């Protein structure tokens, strides 16, 4: 009888140890998934006339969780690698204009064509970024005049 109880104690201790390990592993997974949120929304605070290749600096930050958007330069810097979504809406009253969402200064992620007659244009893209990748918006032709700053928005967030 005592041998049987000792065998059960070994089994129970083994199961308890396994449950402790499982709990530790689940806590580690939960901690790794509960990183600080990364999300931003920025808009223009004033009308902007842009030159070819000029970065659109969305200087009024409405949300900046994780502090990854830099409203001085109009750049988003990915703090961690992951899957991100970016959205861009512009309202142009200059010449018909083309804008691009750019990664690291040269890779075009998305384009946006904006007519000159106060018709808003939008683009949404999902991209895989590496830590420290930089994403921003630039004008690609002369005469872009972004009016109605409330309707000129740039936003993004970490999906996973």
UniProtKB/TrEMBL annotation:
InterPro entries: C1q_dom (IPR001073), Cerebellin_Synaptic_Org (IPR050822), Tumour_necrosis_fac-like_dom (IPR008983). PANTHER family: C1Q DOMAIN-CONTAINING PROTEIN, CEREBELLIN-RELATED. One of its GO terms (cellular component) is extracellular region. SMART domains: C1Q. It is found in: Secreted. Keywords: Secreted, Signal. This is Heavy metal-binding protein HIP. Gene3D superfamilies: 2.60.120.40. The keyword Transmembrane helix does not apply.
